[in-house]
Amino acid sequence: MSFRCPQCLTPDTLEIILSIDIPPDRRYDEISLQVIGCKVCTFRGLAVYEELISADEVESWHHTGYWVSRDAVEAVLKAIRSCPDPHNPRCTCPAHASLGKKDVYGIWRGLLELERSHTFSMRLSAG
To answer: Would you give the DSSP letter of residue 6?
Structure first.
């Protein structure tokens, strides 16, 4: 699955490099924190995919990209690589514990870096 790069705007070049499934929160049934990168330019960032399946089986989802510092990308890469089972949201490893923190309302906090960054739509390339 390839997306359009937000930096060089080239279609089919932005890819998900690595991801970790975060435990569900009060809003979403599925949450995935992703490291993304362009095959053409130097862009690296993070993305979050969130999906909700309602009682009547209607899917609602958001896929948002984030411009973040290189240090933030490297920290998330390191955490994901340290996890023995990144696609198991019930994994109890330190990476899941750190990346999956929730607030007092049971909503996933994300990362402080995400709160301070600019966002962009993860646009699938046609073709």
So the answer is: T
